[in-house]
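In full, the data:

***
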Amino acid sequence: MSVENGHFPLMQLKRYVDGLWLPSETEAPWTVPTWELATGSETELLRVLRRGSKTPIAEISLDELRAHVQQRCHSYGAAGRSLSQQHQDLFDWLQQTCDRVQVFRVGTVTIDIVVIGIIDNHYVALQTQSVET
């Protein structure tokens, strides 16, 4: 089912991120942004995030993000194992559902983490923030 046809994958994505947060100094929730992407370019990403054109932006792999989350969840004990598994389920769904997945880290100290997937030639995104001091 396409993204346009009933928004089925988008609804699934929202269920995966409901209540899910990224372990960092802020423990910010994952969200499905209201902005939409037309090109998925770094320039467009900076614009929708309302960041300046000179803001540092780096692409990392989904596996790098997965390892980062697992490492951070380790210090949360039993709750961290559950949180890690929820992220694993989300990342597995993204890999199975999307034609392509990209992960961007935007900024320094307060970092927007944006995951962009392509489903049926449409962009879907999820976003969180990580404070790294």
About this structure: The helical segments are 8-17, 42-48, 62-73, 77-97. Residues 49 and 112 are 8 Å apart (CA to CA).
